[in-house]
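Researcher: Go.
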Amino acid sequence: MTLPAAAWRERVEFERRLVHASGTLYPVPYL
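Model: Structure:
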């Protein structure tokens, strides 16, 4: 399963925000 570059970038930015907010490496499991 591959994601378009834009969607992948969006996901990375989303997770980066979660990491910054929670202070943990992986705040949510990968879906």
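Model: The CA atoms of residues 20 and 26 lie 10 Å apart.
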